[in-house]
Amino acid sequence: MISRLRSDLYENWLEGLLDPSSRVIVDFDGIDGILRLPERSFQSQGCLQEHLFWYIVEGQCSGVVAGDPVSLSAGSVLWVSPSIPFRFSFPASAKQRILRFRMRIENALESVISPGWPYRAVASFSEGRLWFEKIVVESLNSDCWSSSKIRGLVSCLCSDIFRRTSGDFSNGNQESRLSASQQYSIAEFLAKNMRGSVSPLDISRRMGYSHNYFTRLFRQTYGVSLRKWILENRLQVAANYLDETDESVSKIGELCGFEDPYYFSRQFSKWAGASPSCYRKTRSVS
Description:
- This protein is α+β, with helices and mostly antiparallel strands.
- The protein has 2 domains: about 5-165, Jelly Rolls; about 180-285, Arc Repressor Mutant, subunit A.
- The chain contains 10 helices and 9 strands.
- It has helices spanning about 5-20, 125-140, 145-165, 180-190, 200-205, 210-220, 225-245, 250-255, 260-270, 275-285; strands spanning about 25, 40-45, 50-60, 60-65, 70-75, 75-80, 85-90, 95-105, 120.
- It has a 5-stranded antiparallel beta sheet, with helices on one face.
- A hairpin with a 2-residue loop joins strand 4 and strand 5.
- The longest helix has 20 residues, at about 145-165.
- The model is unreliable at about 1-5 and about 30-40 (pLDDT under 50).
């Protein structure tokens, strides 16, 4: 049985897809061709702002999506949410034929609407090809109804994928806690952007979740709010700098994402029980 939280999560996303005020952009580039990849790989570091849909007609591939290993073979369907990093490799000697399209949903509140999970993968999903082919056929029509019909067909495809994976906790939808690979991805993202401005919303979008759902999931995993976790990670890195370098306090604050040195000093004092300067002196003595 589908849990209420998961069904509500999907229903909210589906409302965004079918809402007439939302703008749905579907790109069919290469959908009916053979995927030709000279380097035998295909990847994104999380910069794609569209939903990615693949149906494997012929061949196979393996890779990593949001830190999880994923294998696809003929008959498999893959749905990757916006801003989710992935990487796939293809056997050099095998021909690959993949039906594929990208979809972007926009409304006035959020530039990109995500369903609340990083990805969905379904094996032996023959009905998936039917939906893909219908979407292709409808994309060739130019009448006033084609846009609405494509919305409906995409919603049918997504509903079938959701139905097939709703009970699978390992399929990019571990509801109660973030997986170890997801935790690693979050920490890595903050580390790479330590000097810049990283907000809870930035991390939510990076992980492909709605902001409210992700902050709740994060608290269930770590026991603290996402905002507090970001702050404490910055302060811990600052403490390491104070221990290991001779950089000035203001420079360390800047390296850790604190533009205002007074704010950095105040937050560090609350966290460590001493100002950055006193902390450094105490540590050097000990």
